[in-house]
Hints:
8 helices, 5-stranded mixed β-sheet, alpha/beta, 4-stranded parallel β-sheet
Amino acid sequence: MQIVVRQALISDSSSPFHGQQKDILIDGDIISAIEDHINTNKDAKIIEQDNLVASPGWVDSFANFNEPGFEYKETLQSGSEAAAAGGFTQVFAIPNTSPVIDAKSQVEFITAKNQSSIIKIHPLGAISKKIEGKELAEMFDMYNSGAIAFTDGLSPVQSSGLLLKALQYVKAFNGVIIQVPTDKSIQPNGLMHEGILSAQMGLPGLPAIAEELMIEKMISLLRYTESKLHISGISSGRSLQLIIAAKKEGLNISCSIASYHLFFCDEDLREYDTHLKTPLPLRSREDMRALREGVSNGDIDMIASFHLP
Length: 309
């Protein structure tokens, strides 16, 4: 079957057509022509709409597909279908499952599903056994079985000593540690950004310093180990400035934000809308604007969905 996409803006910096509006001919599963105008047979499917954009498949670096153990929330199949519907062709699946993805057998369970999946699922192996933050998991075995990087996901490692060992350990195979920047000892029951609004609403606040202190600690450990670190889900402007300074220093660090931090801030919670109760709190309007600027100028490396059914 032939498909013609009419006058799509091509967004692909590696393509000679980047930034141009073209017709695209898809023959079966192959893009066979990109031209100003393409004539085709009457049986071809035509996709024509204002403001069409064509790009390579998107990559989501932080999503929870819940399988195994929590299939009532999501399965690898339903998660893959949701990802594909949104234009994602590769997804990093966090290890917060039951059992936890902390050994090669669990990694192989995920990678085996790729044979029938419509997208590519990359398992993220756990840093610590059972994501308890006490002992290192067998990261080398998981890496050899297909784990693309290592994280404790929604339960980030709190121990400086264990995180130090993890950063040192992955250097043996050029691995990457991914950490959500949350110091859980600071206001562990916080429900929203700590500020004037949280006081007015009577909700316990989670201060930005819980994130910023964790980032400062991780940067110090990264400097010491000379390893690789990705900080996933920053939410404050100061967090971004700390990471920018670390990059200028030459440290091997990158960062991502949750997509919702570009669109909402704590002011949007005035009506107690539970749809906006996010695992990473919505910060101030100033923080939101700083993150938008960080995306625009390239200081923020990735936008993650933080898909958490």
